[in-house]
Amino acid sequence: MATADEEKILEGFLCPICKADLKSASQLTSHFESLHQEEQDVLRSLKDIFGKAKKIILNNDDADLKETFDRALKFSYADYRDEEQSEGVSRSSSDYFKAVRSARLERYATETNKLLIRLDKLVCNMPSDPNQRKQYEQEIVPWLDGSSVKLCPNCAKAFNLTRRKHHCRLCGSILCHDCSLFLDINVARSIVDPSAPPTAAPADAEVTEKTGLRLCEHCYNLIELRKQVQESRNAKTVLMTAYEQMRSLMDQARPAVALYEKMCQSLFDGETTYNLSDVNAMRGRIGKLAEGIDLLSKQIASFPAEPGTRQFRLQNAIRQAAAHYIKEDLLSLRKLPTEAQIDEVRRQRYERAERQIQMERQKMEKERERLEDLAGPSGREREVANDNDDDNPLLEQMNIIRQYIKEAREEFKFEEVAILEANLKELKKEYHLQKLSNKC
User: Fold this and answer.
1) Engineering a disulfide at 120: which of 16, 84, 89, 192 sits with its beta carbon 3.0 to 4.6 angstroms away?
2) Which CATH number describes the domain made up of 100-198+206-234?
3) What are the pLDDT digits (tens) for 349-362?
4) Where would one find coiled-coil regions in this protein (predicted)?
């Protein structure tokens, strides 16, 4: 219904007398009947006039009506076909809609928060004994007196011996068993405390009164809506999952690169802790990590986003950072030495070690001769030659460590290989010192 004057156009459920907007048809009817009794007689007379005119028109000849209609149509088309129509007056209802919507959302939020407070109190110190549990639930949320309630408020079925009265544990209202919904206690704990670790339950497990809380449909829907909001907030997007996987590969690549550099340096120094196959295996592992990082970064950059937006710039920045990391840290590794270079360095290291051992032996021989000269013939009697040392415990320990080194290399645990090799060197040194002392 709308009326127009020279200044503006009014819209809504308007009173035809006072032009007031009553917002709804029922309010308009009650307003008109209570405040405009005198004008109703005038409206009745107008309705009678229009009714008589309608009957007269319907009783006329069909041909005359068709001719009159065609003439009026041609007249209106001829008069208004070239006339340019202007835009009418528009009115925005956004503010009214937002006010209604915010009030409704606030009401739902208030009710949901009250239910969550009650739910928190219920699940925190819930007793395991069913009898004590019922009394505890009634103390937390007072139950309505059902002495005068004869029908279920939800399904309108009468209560009897087979259809007993039950109470909602969150609002205390009365309902029957068929209208009851059960919320699992573990799910309730995860709702009131999202940081708590979830307790896995069988997928086909039915929630009963013993394992859940009896709720009415209204309370259950509000709690379920809150649960869905929590899950949507905690849910990870495909973009976030891909980024976390890429960061995980980067975290694995950093110590792998550091260990590769350490292994290369060990080869250049002529040490026997690592061999060339170990370093090549580590290099291949770093290459696979680089391929995974590159693939995930390309996947992140290919996600649809509006050009110029913040998400678009973020995806491109992730791709550029990943490409720079691969180029500077993973692909610019130190070049491996050749077998000939490794053999030459080890030969020189072996020669230096041999010279050192010869010097130590000469020194020990001189010391032994000096002691023999001082001790005389009785000193030679103390000399015990025992070259058969197969049962030496040091040899057994060295063999065990060599086996551990072999297993660690097969599993790419090169840090353990370095530690075991260091232990093996200490045992070898101790073994040589023991042999020298036996000779002396």
Assistant:
1) 192
2) 3.30.40.10
3) 767 766 776 777 67
4) 410-437
Under a CB-based contact definition with an 8 Å cutoff, are residues 13 and 1 in contact? yes
Residue 40 and residue 20: Cα distance in Å, rounded? 17
Architecture of domain 388-440: Irregular (4.10)
With helix as H, strand as E and coil as C, how does 46-97 read?
HHHHHHHHHHHHHHCCHHHHHHHHHHHHHHHHHHHCCCCCCCCCCCCCHHHH
Answer whether 0.85 is exceeded by the pTM.
no
pLDDT of residue 106: 85
When comparing pLDDT for 124 and 53, which is higher?
A: 124
The CA-atom distances, in angstroms, between 136 and each of 122, 126, 165, 175 are: 8, 7, 18, 19
Residue keyed to tokens 């061999």: 275
> How confident is the model at residue 320, as a pLDDT?
93
Cβ atoms of residues 144 and 167 within 8 Å: yes
CA 252/CA 291 separation, integer angstroms: 13
Residue 293's contacts (CB-CB under 8 Å, 6 or more residues apart) are: 246, 249, 250, 253, 322, 325, 326, 330
Taking alpha carbons only, the member of 123, 210, 121, 115 closest to residue 168 is 115
pLDDT of 420 reads 75
Q: From CA 134, how far away is CA 213, in angstroms rounded? A: 11
pLDDT of residue 432: 72
Q: Give the separation between CA 141 and CA 114, rounded to whole angstroms.
A: 11
Tell me the H-state helices in 164-216: 185-192
Torsion of CA 410, 416, 419, 420, to 10 degrees: -40
What are the sequence ranges of the domains in the chain? 1-36, 100-198+206-234, 238-330, 338-377, 388-440
Report the pLDDT averaged over residues 125-146: 83
Do the beta carbons of residue 164 and residue 139 sit within 8 Å?
no
Whole-number Å distance between alpha carbons of 250 and 290: 8
